């Protein structure tokens, strides 16, 4: 699709579906000469999304130990031209158990995926691109409590505050961006698995409207 030499770089996590996939398409549409790197756990959908935007699929599973994905991400950064404008879109995450009292054993994997991996990527990117832009994909859940989303809400709030702090010292642009309600696979999980019936019905009505 884009045959000219790249004039910018976009690294998009959670790129295999939902908002991440839409983000890949939007970046390609707005920036025809941008080199797009689509990051997600290995899957046919990641390959398909990357191909659809003439991007590069980078299979990284952020639920693996920090050293594993951190090394893979740093290896990617080391191959990129340091002189091009670059943007990291931190989009990946998981809802976790939709329960008012999630099991304590579910805390570490949710925090590792929703918080630790996100912060690790932003710090590595900021070091590699001191003037690069970082977009943290946020949510209403960062500021509004939902009865059965405690782990998800806590993760989004932590990410927002971290990037707000980073914006005070990072020379590049840092943005917490909440795209609003979207009919994604994550919303499908809420409609099917939400244990709070009132909230589940609200998302069903949103789908129907």
Average pLDDT value?
89
- Percent range of helical residues: 40-55%
Amino-to-carboxy terminus distance: 36 Å
In the sheet with the most strands, the strands line up as: 3-2-1-4-5-6
Q: Which sequence of SSEs, written as H and E, runs from N to C?
A: EHEHEHEHEHEHH
| Rg, Å, rounded | 17 Å
Number of distinct beta strands: 6
Which structural class should the secondary elements be placed in?
A: alpha/beta
- Discrete helix count: 7
Oligomeric state of the chains? Answer: single chain
> What global shape is seen?
globular
Largest beta-sheet characterization = 6 strands, parallel
β content, as a range? 5-15%
Summarize the SSE layout with pairings.
Layout: E1 8-13, H1 18-30, E2 34-40, H2 44-52, E3 56-59, H3 66-78, E4 86-90, H4 107-128, E5 133-137, H5 150-166, E6 174-177, H6 185-193, H7 197-208
Parallel strand pairs: 1-2, 1-4, 2-3, 4-5, 5-6
């Amino acid at each position: 699709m884009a045959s000219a030499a790249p004039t910018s770089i976009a690294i998009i996590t959670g790129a295999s579906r939902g908002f991440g996939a839409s983000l890949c398409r939007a970046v390609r549409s707005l920036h025809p000469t941008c080199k797009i790197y689509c990051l997600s756990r290995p899957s046919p959908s990641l390959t398909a999304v990357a191909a659809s935007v003439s991007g590069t699929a980078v299979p990284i599973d952020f639920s693996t130990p920090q050293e594993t994905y951190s090394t893979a991400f740093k290896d990617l950064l080391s191959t990129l031209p340091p002189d091009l404008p670059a943007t990291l879109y931190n989009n990946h995450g998981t809802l976790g158990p939709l329960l008012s009292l999630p099991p304590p054993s579910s805390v570490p994997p949710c925090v590792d995926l929703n918080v630790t991996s996100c912060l690790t990527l932003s710090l590595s990117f900021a070091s590699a691109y001191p003037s690069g832009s970082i977009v943290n994909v946020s949510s209403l859940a960062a500021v509004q409590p939902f009865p059965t989303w405690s782990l998800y809400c806590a993760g989004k709030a932590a990410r927002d505050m971290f990037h707000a702090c980073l914006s005070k010292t990072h020379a590049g642009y840092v943005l917490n961006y909440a795209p609003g309600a979207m009919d994604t696979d994550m919303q499908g999980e809420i409609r099917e698995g939400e244990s709070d019936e009132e909230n589940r019905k609200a998302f069903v009505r949103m789908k129907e409207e």
